[in-house]
Predict the structure.
Amino acid sequence: MNDTSDSERNRMKARFLHGYNNRPSVRVTNRMRTKSDPIVDTLIQARLDALKTEEILFIRFGHRLSMAAENIIGLILEEYIHCSALQHGWTCCWGSAIPSVDFCSSEGTLLQIKNRSNTENSSSNKIRVGTEIRIWFRLSAYTGETRWDGLNDIIGEPDLMSEKGFHTFAADLIRRNPSVLFVEEELLHLLGRSE
């Protein structure tokens, strides 16, 4: 193997290990550095004038927590699929070890996954043109239906994964590693809790 191939293989290995070592079950999420825009509270108060200040604060910090949760769903989905499919010859391509590929099988099948049907951008769509990379998405953004049967067919194991299984996995992951989902101190204070 020539130096370029060795070099690229080392880069792939480094990306894989970095991604694996930062998977949701072990990562610690950084605290939020951005601040809320106070006009949001003003708009909510103007629209729902019966709300008390504390209720508006719950909405503000709840929304920020919800956005943080949405930002990690795809990562948790990858880990769920990896843990479920590993024994069937599939692995996650952690850290973009193979560009534009999320999973690969021991037989060479390449798969891109999306959490929702409307999260694919044009670059991820274009990258598959002329390739054998397959795509699967979990949730139809327009009907709310999930598509686990399609993924189970790709993996070759009927009933291997399900929405219920994903929810259970995700909740267990958060309980085992609450640091993956940062909760702002202000929200904890409103709830009368601390971490």
